[in-house]
């Protein structure tokens, strides 16, 4: 996939031995075997969409780098993946890009924990909209995404997963706006809300009356 190849990376972080080492480490992280949705295909998809939406950003290269790092750490058993990914970005990009861009990348990575950028946050809007684009896919594509997320949380019982995933879906449906960019919001929002509502309805029908939420140490089933 050329979107995740070294040439694409080098346009952002330069071509040096350190840069090559960091790119290889980032790609290896995205290729971990436990990933079923949050993998290199997801990274390529987000990078592609960021490229399409980049004109709306104030620092498109920072958004692209944030896409590279937004799920670079992804362990379904923990609840601080975004925090650790942001720290990973700070460490990995040090000396490769200006310090102020490093901090912007880390800020954007943290933003993907809740996908609620401020109204004037153009960079955050581009990254979050690209990351949540999967929610607006055709029903069959959305079903494949939801199934892949369930596989990533195979360590949870059905009751635990249902409780955690339900909370995520309810959070997304309660956002003032799922998408912030006018270029995509009008088209994507109805489809995404329909998909989310359909999955939520399915989970509620499956839930047993006494279901309890997953233990705190696991973290919630991912939203994107």
TrEMBL record:
It comes from the Bacteria. This is Predicted metal-dependent phosphohydrolase, HD superfamily. One of its GO terms (molecular function) is hydrolase activity. Keywords: Hydrolase. SUPFAM superfamilies: HD-domain/PDEase-like. Signal peptide: none annotated. The keyword Heme does not apply. The keyword Hydrolase applies.
């Amino acid at each position: 996939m050329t979107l995740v190849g070294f040439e694409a990376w080098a346009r952002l972080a330069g071509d040096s031995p350190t840069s090559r080492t960091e790119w290889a480490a980032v790609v290896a992280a995205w290729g971990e075997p436990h990933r079923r949705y949050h993998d290199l295909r997801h990274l390529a998809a987000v990078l592609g969409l960021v490229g399409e939406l980049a004109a709306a950003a104030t620092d498109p290269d920072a958004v692209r780098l944030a896409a590279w790092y937004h799920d670079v750490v992804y362990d379904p058993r923990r609840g601080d993946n975004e925090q650790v990914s942001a720290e990973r970005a700070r460490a990995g990009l040090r000396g490769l890009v200006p310090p102020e861009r490093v901090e912007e990348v880390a800020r954007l990575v943290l933003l993907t924990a809740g996908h609620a950028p401020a109204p004037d946050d153009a960079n955050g809007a581009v990254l979050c909209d690209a990351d949540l684009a999967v929610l607006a896919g055709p029903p069959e594509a959305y079903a494949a995404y939801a199934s892949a997320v369930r596989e990533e949380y195979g360590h949870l019982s059905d009751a635990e997963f249902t409780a955690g995933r339900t909370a995520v879906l309810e959070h997304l449906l309660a956002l003032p706006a799922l998408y912030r960019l006018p270029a995509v919001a009008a088209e994507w929002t109805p489809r995404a809300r329909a998909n989310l509502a359909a999955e939520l309805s399915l989970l509620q029908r499956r839930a047993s009356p006494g279901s309890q939420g997953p233990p705190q140490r696991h973290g919630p089933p991912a939203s994107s």
